[in-house]
Design goal:
192 residues, 6-stranded antiparallel β-sheet, alpha+beta, 4 helices, 24% strand
Length: 192
Amino acid sequence: TLSQTVELTDLLEKMTRILLENAGAERVLVLSRDEGQWFVWASGKVGDPAIQTGLRFPVSEAAGLSLSVFNYVIHSGKAIVLEHASRDPQFGADTYLCEHQVKSLLCLPIYHKSALNLVIYLENNLTERAFTENRLEFLRLLSGQIAISLENALIYDNLKTSIAERLLLSQHLQRSQRMEAIGTLASGIAHD
């Protein structure tokens, strides 16, 4: 399903839906790095039929995640699985985790071509230990396909943008040439 999707928003929606349905998550955030800064690109929640894609707001402005967990993952490059996040000895003091009494949390870095440009953030506040070793392994296997599909979608998106820019430039050039021809014609008529 993912490999056949080339539109970025469609890919983000399908990817978020697959994660919600198969990873044991109640909430999913897809975070991506662009030009050195991290952004939230997609968000989904069980029971909410609308997956939010096309988001692009900085992680620092995101209200729905633990920044301490996210920062640990992007700096260490390691996945974090917390069985009861708000009671975790390392991250339990995090304001977000305490305020929302987060139970299960999984934050997974996804590498492609040795670069970390994508993070999947999953929460389940209904049960502890929602993210089992089997689910983590499933996500690791899926992460390779996610990375490749995302790269293909970004290439396709860049190509569409480039084609649109060239079309606009071509139209502008044609208009300019017509105006020049009209000016030359008007100048010739004025001399006659």
